[in-house]
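Would you mind writing out the residues of a protein together with its fold in token form for me to study?
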Amino acid sequence: MLGFRVEREFQFACHDFVFLSAGGARSPVIELIGGPLEDERQPPENISDVLKLAGWNHLCLQVGNVEECIADLRRRGVRILIDVFDGAAGLKIAFIADPWGNVYELLEPPGEERRTAP
């Protein structure tokens, strides 16, 4: 749904492991661990409050064009938590959630700092 490619899947100790890569990356960049769920995780209702907390609360992914990315993800049925907005220092930012309630920030740096994917 988010456009990642599954590189490897396996089971160990009653859990499912999957390694994901983005775009043309050759190595896994994200590891997800699944298995029986005790409780379904829900994305937070107010991202602003979550960002005030210390520790891990989301994963930030740099994208070339956040508006195009959000439009594509919206067509795929991805839950948009915060639509595209202008952040500090010329950044464009949006927040989404994956099907398991994990929060992702999509960040487009200012023009001179943009890097295009190979």
